[in-house]
Amino acid sequence: MSESIGEATAAVITSKVTRKSTPRIAVQFEKYGVLVAWVVVIAFFSLMMPETFPTLATGRLILGTQTVILITTLGLMLSLAVGEFDLSVGSVVGFAGSLMVVLNGVLGWGALESFVTTLVAALLFGALNAFLAVYVGVQSIIVTLGTGTLLAGLTLAVTSSKVVTGLDPGIVQFMTSPILGIPIPFYIAVILTVIAWFVLQHTPLGRRMNFVQANREVARLSGLRVQWIRAGGLMATSLFGGLAGIVLAGTNGAANPQAGAYYLLPAFAAAFLGSTAIIPGRFNAFGTFVAVYFLVTGITGLQYLGYAGWPEQIFYGSSLVIAVTIGHVVGRRRGQGI
Amino acid sequence: MDTVTAKNTETVTLSVRDVSKTFYGITVLSDFAMDIHRGEMVALIGQNGSGKSTFIKILSGFHAPDEGGTFRLGQQDVGDMLGQSPSKTGMAFIHQDLPLVPSMTILENLRIARFMTGFAGRILWKREAVEVAKILAKVGLDVSPNLRIDQLSVTERALVAIARGLSEIEAGDALEAQLLVLDEPTAYLPEEGVTRLFSVLRDLSAQGVSILFVSHRLDEVLDHCSRAVILRGGRKVGDVKTVGMKERDLVEIMLGQPPEDIYPDRNFPVGEEILRVSELTGSQVKDVSFSAKRGEIIGFVGLPGEGYDQIPYLLAGATRSTGGTATVNDVTLDLPKLRPARAIANGIALLPADRKGASGAVDITVGANLTLPTLGKFTSPLHVLRGKAEREFVATELVHATVTPPDGSARLATLSGGNQQKVLISKWATADPAIFLLHEPTQGVDVGAKRQVFIQLNKLAREGAAILISSVEYDDLANLCTRVHVIRDGHIVGTLEGDALKAHDLAAAVHQR
Lengths: 338, 513
Prior knowledge:
- The structure holds two protein chains of two kinds.
- Helix content of chain A is 78%, strand content 2%.
- The longest helix of chain A is centred in the last third of the chain and has 27 residues, at 226-252.
- In chain A, the strands form two sheets. A two-stranded antiparallel sheet of chain A has the order 1-4.
- Chain A is built from 15 helices and four strands.
- Chain B has two domains: 6-255, 3-Layer(aba) Sandwich (Rossmann fold), CATH 3.40.50; 273-511, P-loop containing nucleotide triphosphate hydrolases (Rossmann fold), CATH 3.40.50.
- In chain B, helix 6 packs parallel to helix 7, helix 9 (247-255) crosses helix 18 and helix 17 packs across helix 18 (503-511).
- Chain B is globular and about 75 Å long.
- Chains A and B meet through helix 1, helix 10, helix 11 and helix 15 of A and helix 11, helix 12 and helix 16 of B.
């Protein structure tokens, strides 16, 4: 009796395992799908414009000009990785850029003081989000919708809705001087990507963040400081947003107080698209990196072809929808029969 | 027994034949058949895992039965309609976790599916109120339909749930057969609420409504049901008239022969005292005090809602206590202030019953789940994970725990329930707990994996941990534990140990009031 049950169980287990294992090729495609799409996009535009697109100048343009999106997305990814939605990150970018220029260009503070003060201000704003979302317990998506709108309004008020100028030329020069043809901030962003990757993949903190996102109750009952990890994610997002704002202001030599609104959707699109790549199903830094540059390449190519303005919205919007759809469908397929 | 005479057909409400259910090759319900007559109240009883919930879930359309079963309600074949609206099938299900929306009114809860509307889709509130008052009168409730559910007592809520079931059936025109299925309806009710509920049920059955009553409370079964259908191991082992029967007789049929030996020997001595709990109090537990020695396995048993299953969560800081202290290894913890992190730091580990919701993260790998509480062991001085050391540890541990497949990189969800449980027990066992608290550790675990779970627990006890298990698996408790405390209404009302610790006596202590 017991043996027959044992055999039946063993048979069940074996059949389950065979049924579950996805073909290797499919796994690989899932991992590198976005990377492949990026290559396809590059190939497509290169064929369309063999003279202008596949050039060093285009490469530099693509890698160099969208550093702000990359830093913002990395930041956003850190709160998504602990299960929080931060809709205020765009406002932080706009606010930080304006604050940097106001402090340095208008009030005449030193570059370092302005830089540090701006980052601290962004961090404090992140702490406010964390207080409301984690300590008080309001859903972060609602909290940050409110605080983000509030911050955008304050930015407009302080700058009288005008572009502020006067940033120290030294800062502008630092932000725009190229190494191998690509401005310095790009390399800073690459370093941040590597650090984020390292923290998420190779430290206990990253592992714990993963559990907080996947199952908060399991994390709590396993003794994790769930509240602090969630708060840390939200604060990191604002800190990265602050840095992105400073890079934006430094690159342009001025700050447009309305610039922030532009960065929210690209960051969400890239972060979700990134979560379907490299380590599918998880928000991860390299996936995010690939996703950002896939999107930027596509948009740059369309601009080369003479389509201006609308391609960005179509590209970002559809990528966000496609990414979350893939994530949902893949997740559901995985969840079957358990 | 299975042939229904022509004369009876007139009055049969529910008639099922040849109902089986197989999950992944394991038969959990085998050729089940039963009848319920018009106006009859019949109990369905059996231990956990006897197939009783499976049958209810088939009847309510949650599980599809295997091919070949027939389901008739009155003259109607409802085999293809299971799971559809009560107005079509004539069956309404009332579960212990009452599916009412607490922030909405009685009226809204009762009528949400079929509001009467007038011009421009406006709800005809006045006519609705009259209608609802009529429905409430049937269950003896005289309250305003505009009260919110969260303003009602538990008993009143149960009655509202029954009223809703009835009104849903009655929305179907001229259904001659009406069946109410009540799944543990009295679990959370106070004594006077139980009396009130049964008087309502008696009235309903006098009006011709048939009632299928699923309960662990044998006293209620004997007092109120005319017949009891008994399941064991997926088979019907009894269909008896309750007249003249005693609870002991029902327990006898429920347990039957003891199952084969899947329990490891516990021939090791117990050590010094390691845990002392004083006046533990929570929402369902009142002033419970006990102690445990190294190597002891202690059981807590009782009925749902009476506290036996809250004790592990209170002691682990997972649920907030309102009073009491626990002394672990000479460190005294103030329980109302205890949080999971602090409990773990003091050597208290908890394995909750809700495997997917609270015990393991199924979307994360087996390896990561296994090492979550012990990640510190696998870090370099700079807080970097030593991936290779972790992978090797996981691989060894999975083989030790006989997890199939022993693949640490697979997601936890890809494992069978039994293998998930082996992983999650290892998760805590490798953290070397002084106290290991478990709630229903063998729920949804097949026999083979069950034995492995017991071996893991036995080994931990042998190594000097004290193990506390809250469960209603009488056989398991009787064979694993050194002693078992019976909890009723939040208090320890009895302790069985030594020769007195038998599954039969445990069942009797729990069910006989």
